[in-house]
Please model this.
Amino acid sequence: MEFTLLVTQECNLACSYCYISKKPVRMSVGTAEKVVGFFFANASIEEENRIGFFGGEPLLEFELMKKIVSMIQNHPRYHEIKVRFKVTSNGTIFTDEIADFFLEHQISYCISCDGDKQTHDAFRRFKDGSGSSETVSATIKKAVELLPALQVNTVLSLDTLRFLPNTIRYLMSCGLKLMYVNTDYTAEWSQKDVVVLESALDEIAEIYIDSYRQNAPVFISVIDEKISVILRGGYSPGEKCHMGMKEMAFTPEGNIFPCERIVYDGASDSSLCIGNVDTGIDLNRLSCHMMDGNETNSECLNCSIRNYCIHWCGCSNFHATGYYNRVGAFLCAGQKAALSVAFRVLETLEKEMPAVFTFHKVGMPTANAQKLFF
Model:
């Protein structure tokens, strides 16, 4: 199970590409208790269960977050259920107290950063229009020292695509090792952008290869995740989209959505809402969001890279095409480009460093970057 709690839809930034409607609402303790109860009523003891804190900016509600973690860890079923926590933040709020709490409760911390000052401030600004890069850079500098597995998320948009290699270099210069690249599929991508993406990925591949040669490996999701899936022979059923079944997002009001990426305004009358913690899942609504596994793109059905592609990602598809099972052209092209680069990186480094991707093969692609086994 993967539950995401939007503890607030308020945010201190006004990022230009954000898909969550901002409004001054926060999750009440009573609603949080119901969400926690819903989680333990549905969580499996046989699988890893993840709880993410999202927003808005979740650290605006740090005290509430602490209460929720306590509710979970003091629940009678907690010790029989494996639970991992994650916080996704804009990086503008960070203190020693927050760092200590994350360490004590083994909470993963992911900061959103789009690159250097010029790139980041073009899209991630405070409400008064001023850039947030200086604040975020200070947070990254402090968090790198205090937290052993700090993650960073960078959004790939039409305007940042050409800067992506420089963004990776910048994040590495900040001491970051775990870098996730997530595409804004709501943008109107073109064939020209595909050419730019292919060039950017080629350049990033050289940065990646060099990091290994320098005995300082990094994790770059667009490369490492594909190396892992190549070595494992494709995505397993458990990795694929289970939106609305094993993956749910909860708004401050307790409304339930299949995924946090399609919450938007979070309203109960939204066509994307599948229920509420007070009334449970509406099976009629849920049936409208089920992924049947059959793409409407005929070219996907016999594609040679089908098993290695995220054509099954319902939310990415929805943002791009308006349908959960219809793949957008840029996702298709991007997956082909990423796989091509991953094959080249894999071939190059395995010749120089045999068995270097052993842990990628068992589904642990971040291990080398974290120096757990490298």
